[in-house]
Design brief:
Elements: H1 2-8, H2 13-25, H3 30-37, H4 41-53, E1 57-62, E2 65-70, H5 74-102, E3 106-111, H6 113-126, E4 132-136, H7 147-160, E5 164-170, H8 174-180, E6 188-192, E7 200-203, E8 206-211, E9 217-222, H9 224-240
Parallel strand pairs: 4-5, 5-6
Antiparallel strand pairs: 1-2, 3-9, 4-7, 7-8, 8-9
């Protein structure tokens, strides 16, 4: 039984044989240990060095000959506690690695008006009061399509839930964008001179690239890492943007 327990604790077969032999022999030289354990001298010497390194064996020198003795088996408990302390010191790092591995990055393409609309309906259902919806507005080439009507209706729905609804657009199309969202008090708008992403939505753990045309398409990226980068970029531009 003791061999099974020691094996489970990580001891090798040789270490178990030598250590148990020494517990029975008391202070002794290599010869009796070899005979008791059934291991050749060379293997006994190698194993003794490992057990000494673990703090489970000590020796004295008598007439130029080493006499080895197994330390109190309670030292194994100290060895286990030491391993536990060392493992605890890296536990947070290991858990962080696991967390990153669990944060799966998923890309889904929603193609066609029905799929596009279904995605927005799902987003609305998932958003809770107090959540945020950040967006980089479409540019001029989209303003003469049905995109503004679709998005206006969606932002009106966001207002019902009191979502933190913000959008950043180019100063070049400020007039058209303000006209599109006129009367929707919940949405906050800012405008910047520099180039911005086009039709990008940022919500919790997701970044969505919108493309309008004859066949509206949305590329939905679920990735906490990518989301955080885009969110930080949006907030940076928001801080430097101009209010209407």
């Amino acid at each position: 039984m003791e061999t099974d327990v020691l094996r489970e604790l990580g001891f090798t077969e040789r270490e178990i044989k030598v250590y148990l032999a020494m517990l029975e022999l008391g202070s002794t030289t290599v010869g009796p240990i070899s005979a008791k354990s059934g291991l050749p001298y060379t293997k006994v010497y190698e194993t003794l060095e490992r057990l000494i390194a673990k703090g489970l064996v000590s020796y004295t020198v008598v007439s130029k000959t080493k006499h080895y003795e197994a330390d109190d088996p309670k030292e194994i408990l100290n060895l286990i506690e030491d391993r536990k302390r060392r493992f605890t010191s890296i536990l947070d790092e290991l858990q962080q690695k696991r967390k990153y591995s669990e944060e799966k990055q998923i890309v889904v393409v929603h193609e066609g008006y029905k799929a596009f609309k279904a995605m927005f309906n799902r987003i609305f259902d998932e958003l809770k009061r107090g959540d945020y919806y950040y967006a980089f507005n479409f540019k001029e080439e989209y303003l003469d399509t049905s995109a503004p009507i679709f998005l206006r209706n969606f932002h009106q729905k966001l207002a019902q839930k009191k979502i933190d609804d913000r959008a950043i657009g180019s100063l070049a199309v400020k007039g058209s964008i303000m006209h599109t969202f006129e009367g929707i008090k919940n949405i906050k708008q800012k405008f910047v001179k520099r180039t911005t992403p086009t039709g990008v939505v940022i919500i919790k753990d997701k970044v969505i690239q919108l493309m309008w045309g004859e066949r509206p398409t949305a590329i939905e990226i679920t990735s906490p890492q990518i989301h955080q980068r885009y969110k930080a970029f949006f907030e940076e531009m928001w801080a430097e943007g101009r209010s209407p």
